[in-house]
Amino acid sequence: MSRIVKVAAAQLGPIQRADSRASVIGRLLALMREAKSMGADVVVYPELALSAFFTKWYIPDDAALEAEFFEREMPGPDTRVLFEEAARLGIGFHLGYAEVTVEAGVKRRFNTAILVDATGQIVGKYRKIHLPGHPDYRPEYPIQDLEKMYFEIGDLGFPVFDVFGGVMGMCICNDRRWPETYRVLGLQGVEMIFCGYNTPIHNPMAASEDHLQNFQNLLPMQAGAYQNASWVVGVAKCGVEDGWEMIGQSSIISPSGEIVAMCSTLEDEIAFARCDLDRTAVYKHAVFDFAAHRRPEHYGLITSRKGAISPFPRTDRPTERTVPAHHDEE
Ligand code: ING
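Above: the input record for the complex with D-[(amino)carbonyl]phenylalanine. Below: its predicted structure, written as tokens.
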């Protein structure tokens, strides 16, 4: 039996800070129409797909930051056309965006992704849990990574959703580097994981490893797919945004760990594959039959030996602005 999902990984080239929101929406619509013309059931957009990767800038004025980069509603005035076109074409989509909302009278900000079905209804939502970078402005860095300042840690866990004929999950960017991401989804029987990313080549906190960014992009996604018997669709926003280059390599990865489609440019480009969800079965029922072979009760107490978590002396300076309590450093 085959449960085929035709997937269009819709990589985005750079979005400059000066680019209009209308120009971005136009690009997303063009990719959606191209995906439909290829026969896709779902088009997968990157993380923070509506704007430049703004966490590289220190923007202390919250009102200005939210006005320029955050969505107060989804669909909202700019994005409603995506939902309407998806319903008209009969195609689902995954979209990453910066979410600001008020819950129980408290303003919340998240790095968020949604799954929308072919009728234009939101059927899944995820809020990024692994926020990389640093919580405080570091003027000595040529490029900031201020996700810990701009977003709260996601509060939805790693849920799975029954849509597109299978069990679907999501993660966002840095999440893809952590084995827990895939295992928590794998333990729920996930068959396809959508992951958008914006990954600058230069990481001031580990500049010695910049040359390995492409290798260390694919490595965890291929391993995570194989070790949890799931498809993984990783989609980049890439190219040079306001002077800083981000990696591409948007890929569709099989439960075997093989890359079955990959973008080869740093521009708007679709990587397309017919993904058989039943390809997961041989791995879920043989090598990675968790019930038959996995033995968490024998692994011993899962704790970290003192100092094992951060073996190096922390060099964090006191933060220059109060970071919300839940950002407490360990
Ligand atoms: N970006 C990066 C990522 O995890 C990063 C942060 C860059 C981490 C380079 C390590 C090296 O791909 C996001 N948005 O998480």
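Notes for the reader.
DSSP finds eight helices and 14 strands in the chain.
The CA atoms of residues 307 and 313 lie 9 Å apart.
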